[in-house]
Amino acid sequence: MDLSIRPQDDLFGHVNGTWLSEAEIPSDRASWGPFVMLADAAEEHVRAIIEDAAAGRVDGEDAKKIGDLFASFMNEERIAELGLSPIQGVLAAIDDLTDLRGLAAFLGEFERTGGGGLFGSFVDTDDRDSDRYLVNVTQGGIGLPDESYYREEKFAEIRAKYLDYLEKILTLAERPDPRATAETVFALETRLAQGHWERAETRDVIKTYNLMPVAELRALLPSFDLDVYVRNLGGDGATFAETIVRQPSYLEHLETVLTETPFEQWKAFLTVRAIRSAAAYLTDEFVEANFDFYGRTLSGTPELRARWKRGVGLVEGGLGEAVGREYVARHFPPRSKELMDELVANLLAAYRQSIAKLDWMTEETKQRAYDKLDTFRPKIGYPVKWRDYSSLSIDAGDLLGNVVNIAAFETDRQLQKIGAPVDRDEWFMLPQTVNAYYNPGTNEICFPAGILQKPFFDPDAEMAENYGGIGAVIGHEIGHGFDDQGAQYDGNGNLNDWWTADDKAAFELKSKALIEQYDGFEPRNLPGEHVNGSLTVGENIGDLGGLTIAHTAYQIAREGEASVEERQVLFTNWAYCWRTKRRKELEQQYLTTDPHSPPEFRANIVRNLDEFHAAFGTAPGDGLWLDPEDRVRIW
């Protein structure tokens, strides 16, 4: 803590200031703080599980696959021996392409095995019929983090280094005219980026819901052979029978680019995509070139992570739930789950109390909000059923083959959802993940075992600490059910306007006030830059509601009014949870692309809470003082 900074002026700085000035980010990390520290600890735990699996000390059919997958990544001698051979087949296939039909056929197979193409796709529940799955089609085709990187002057140096990176990997792959090819691909990506929606715009759940039968999708992209693409992807006639197109104008733009671009340029584009998708699994020269741009340049990370750490990441990505099952058995005590059940119940009760007291919402809308609360489905710790990896083939001597098999296994798993009943027991995070989520399509909140540790949660901590930590995280995730996006979904997970017109207008007015408040914030380490209030409004509503409701839930838990000291503990632990130090490059990237506000503003959202001002006795002139009429309170 930095006691020279008053909590009334800057709670984040008061709690974290000394640590921020003294702590050093590990050389293989772009950021540091409780989230990353817990992730590092989980990584060590997973490494022990992998080593035990390889030695035959873990039961189950997947143990050998875990050990073999890790071994394939760690066998540097074998990787060096193979050299370029793992990608020569795919590069030869690109060289043989002659037309756009061939491009579509190639992309189907390439994307099935983990590559990226001209657009993105994912399978999810239908936003207007949550009892079925559909393919969602999104904008894509670029190699930089966001379309703004291709046009804004502040990213000019990154663009130059990206061009150098493309030239470098083409040179390593022994392709002819690497500089000219790099410039061709960069120009093509720049043109594709011109059709992208601005990031805040992609958050509009109404504008991005465009249900299309396959005939309409074909009409948007007549030059792209959708049938051969879907067949090679592993789908059938039902896969794209109906899709949700998230940014239709991007596909119209893509059609223009497809027809106006000489085919040789598309082959250059595919060549770069193929090399880049494999680079992390090839020889050290490829790994270093890939890290130099995506790690050092974009995130500011000086040092490549140790090979075993990257190997752990591969195992997590490929056999994560098999590892997670053992992780839970070793590191998640049943008592933690019992206490979390109680915490969640108190948070839901607190939301109900808070909604009852709202002076801006009518009884009609309140009743529908209660109905939604009643259908929230908490998931705590780990799944009730584990993923079946029996059809996944792993070879200890074939790293890139394993990567391809893992991607194809996952593509098939996703495509098999089309036409099948919705699996509401599926988890979208691993148990060992240090994070949490809300999914509007299933109206579920999920808290993996990985985050249920100090400072977020500790069975032996003071109750106020837990409510300022995991309590606020629970409140945040429930709050996503009532943020600018989630509030448009009903309790069944469908886009359904359950608000009266006046209540919706009042909600939008409060959301607008929060947007304007955050638009004015300038990160302390990026002078002259500002938070994008429109991009971050959903997460800010989650933070605001989460902390407010956690305070109420704490009083429910302790069965009475909290003391000033207890409230101070709660708010202090909230600020401690956001203790984060980032490299400047990553800060810039996140400010541009991340829907979460910088950690300092997440901690200091307390400026909006009457409870904070009462606990710390703030007064006009204090750094966090807001006149009561300027404080935003939604839930």
Folded structure, characterized:
The protein is of the alpha/beta class. Among the domains are: 116-263 and 282-304, Neutral endopeptidase, domain 2; 344-376 and 452-630, Collagenase (Catalytic Domain), CATH 3.40.390.10. Helix content is 55%, strand content 7%. It is built from 24 helices and 9 strands. It has helices spanning 11-22, 34-54, 63-74, 76-82, 85-95, 100-112, 156-172, 178-193, 214-220, 226-233, 248-260, 263-278, 284-299, 307-331, 334-357, 363-375, 399-415, 463-480, 501-519, 533-558, 564-577, 584-593, 599-603, 610-616; strands spanning 31-32, 119-126, 129-139, 211-213, 242-245, 377-381, 437-439, 444-448, 581-582. The protein has a 4-stranded mixed β-sheet with strand order 2-3-5-4. Strands 6-8-7 form a 3-stranded mixed β-sheet, with helices on one face. The longest helix has 26 residues, at 533-558.
Please identify which CATH superfamily of the domain at 344-376 and 452-630 we are dealing with.
Answer: Collagenase (Catalytic Domain)
* Largest sheet: number of strands, sense, barrel closure: 4 strands, mixed
Count of individual helical segments: 24
Which CATH top level class of the domain at 344-376 and 452-630 fits?
A: Alpha Beta
Net shape: globular
Q: From the coordinates shown, what is the CATH architecture of the domain at 344-376 and 452-630?
A: 3-Layer(aba) Sandwich
Gap between N and C termini, in Å?
30 Å
Low-confidence stretches: none
Give the class from helix and strand content and strand pairing.
Answer: alpha/beta
What percentage of the residues does DSSP assign to strands (E)? 5-15%
Per DSSP E runs of 2 or more residues, the count of β-strands stands at 9
CATH topology of the domain at 344-376 and 452-630: Collagenase (Catalytic Domain)
What do the pLDDT scores average to? 97
How do the strands of the widest beta sheet line up side by side?
2-3-5-4
Query: What is the C-alpha radius of gyration, as a whole number of Å?
Result: 25 Å
What is the helix fraction of residues, given as a range?
40-55%
Oligomer: single chain
